[in-house]
Design brief:
- It contains 14 helices and 16 strands.
- The chain has a 7-stranded mixed sheet with strand order 4-12-11-10-9-5-8, with helices on both faces.
- The chain has 2 domains: 180 residues, Aspartate Aminotransferase, domain 1 (Alpha-Beta Complex), CATH 3.90.1150.10; 246 residues, Aspartate Aminotransferase, domain 2 (3-Layer(aba) Sandwich), CATH 3.40.640.10.
- With 453 residues, the protein is an alpha/beta fold.
- The longest helix has 24 residues.
- Belongs to the class-III pyridoxal-phosphate-dependent aminotransferase family.
- It holds the Pfam family Aminotran_3.
- This is Aminotransferase class III-fold pyridoxal phosphate-dependent enzyme.
């Protein structure tokens, strides 16, 4: 998808794209060979098809990653501002997590029984997020699925509400968007054999009247939301939005589930804790174990009573919640180390200051060149967007996406040893990122913009 952006010379942009692709291919012969080899036995030539969504002609193979840097198979070193799209938000292989998992690797990986780390991890989650009861999963996708199942059982209501353009992993129920004001199942969702719109309601973020109207029927179990939309490009809540939205949700007997998988960049207790959003349930995935696959979900005491009652009164058998590897010993050891020693207030303070430096630097480049672009920052997460002011809902955010332009900028930066997130223009800093790293990124961004004009 491409919509020409004011001020850019698109003919020069296409020439720059061709030049950068040729440069990438010339400097990465080992990755090229490995990509060809991978094509013999992997669907789409990669371990997961998302790995083809980068701007590169073929996948870049990573040899090793540590802190804010990684090295590819051809020996090039990169400063990583993608950080596994939040999975490594606190850097690759944080020493405390590496040491804890090394110790645990000799003591067992999984037993489908509690480990000694389980109770301390749950206690720390309760302290940090203000919710007293917790459970565990292997990914935020699973955690969100489990929460939806629990809440439907606890409330006796079947429907959920999400926001247009939302991101909650691969949960089937949330792949519904507004198209010309009508709830429509996303065309990209593969293999879906029943209509998701029967049980999923979708409204625009920041639209209180639409939220009120959607919940007035009294059949929505919960609203599942990121406190800041992140995956379609960042969409911030308007002043007073969440305060009013919470009142509407509770007045209609629905529950609020906050997915902090991306917005945990906002602080040790996430965006909700920092901004006074009182969720009934909360999900955190990706970064909570320092990059080890795991996720957590917590709930209020009042909701926990309803959930436990639903389980105790249900017939015997599989609840559809949990897997045999959930809360395995290896993941619990990683989470305990990460929560206690890595996700600290001091680490967040450092990342916030660095992200502010990055945001200011990007704004400076945009202003110098007179581009109608903007920059949004949410804690350690920064993003530049191809519009003069930040979008206020998913429809506006979708309209400004420009994958061709993104690919040119991303590949230009990659060829200069700087990696940013492939799906949009998101950048993360971690405790290992330096001020020099930020300055180098801002300078390269400026050079790329100059080449596009």
């Amino acid at each position: 998808m491409h919509t020409p952006r004011t001020g850019l010379n698109w003919q020069r942009a296409q020439a720059l794209a061709a030049s950068e692709r040729a440069s990438y291919m010339a400097r990465n012969p080992v990755s090229a060979g490995l990509a060809q080899q991978a094509g013999e036995h992997m669907l789409f030539g990669v371990p997961m098809h998302w790995m083809n969504d980068w701007s590169t002609p073929f996948a870049l193979t990573v040899a090793e990653a540590n802190g804010a840097r990684f090295r590819d198979a051809d020996g090039h070193e990169y400063t990583d501002f993608c950080l596994g799209d939040t999975g490594a938000m606190f850097g690759h292989a944080p020493p405390a997590v590496a040491q804890a998992t090394a110790r645990q690797s000799a003591r067992g990986y999984t037993a489908m029984l509690p480990s000694e780390d389980a109770a301390p991890v749950a206690a720390e989650l309760a302290r940090r997020f203000g919710l007293p009861y917790w459970q565990f999963a292997l990914s935020a996708s699973d955690a969100n699925r489990f929460v939806l199942r629990w809440l439907r059982a606890a409330t006796g209501r079947s429907k959920i509400l999400v926001f247009n353009g939302c991101y909650h992993g691969t949960v089937d129920d949330v792949f519904v968007d507004l198209v010309d004001g009508v709830a429509t199942q996303r065309d990209s969702l593969l293999g879906q054999v029943y209509s998701l719109t029967e049980q999923t309601v979708v409204v625009e973020f920041n639209d209180l009247a639409a939220l009120e109207a959607a919940l007035a029927k009294g059949d929505v179990a919960c609203v599942l939301a990121e406190p800041v939309m992140t995956n379609i490009g960042m969409v911030l809540p308007q002043p007073g939005y969440w305060e009013a939205a919470q009142e509407i949700i509770r007045r209609h007997g629905s529950l609020l589930v906050i997915d902090e998988t991306h917005t945990i960049s906002s602080g040790p207790g996430g965006y909700a804790r920092a901004h006074g959003i009182a969720a009934d349930a909360l999900v955190v995935g990706k970064p909570v174990g320092g990059g080890i696959p795991c996720a957590v979900y917590g709930m209020t005491a009042a909701l926990a009573v309803r959930v436990e009652q639903a389980k105790r009164t249900a017939p015997a058998g599989h609840s559809g919640v949990g897997t045999t590897l959930s809360a395995n010993m290896f993941a619990m050891a990683a989470m305990r180390a990460n929560l206690e020693q890595v996700m600290t207030p001091a680490a967040y303070d450092y990342m916030f200051a660095l992200a502010a430096q990055l945001a200011d630097g990007l704004r400076g480049v945009i202003a110098r060149h007179g581009l109608p672009w903007c920059v949004t920052q949410v804690g350690a997460r920064t993003e530049f967007q191809f519009c003069p002011v930040p979008p206020v809902n998913g429809t506006q955010a979708q309209a400004i996406l420009d994958s061709e332009l993104e690919h040119i900028i991303h590949l230009y930066l990659l060829n200069r040893g700087l990696l940013i997130t492939p799906f949009h223009n998101m950048l993360l800093v971690c405790p290992s990122t330096t001020g020099d790293d930020v300055q180098r990124l801002v300078a390269a961004f400026g050079e790329c913009v100059q080449a596009l004009l």
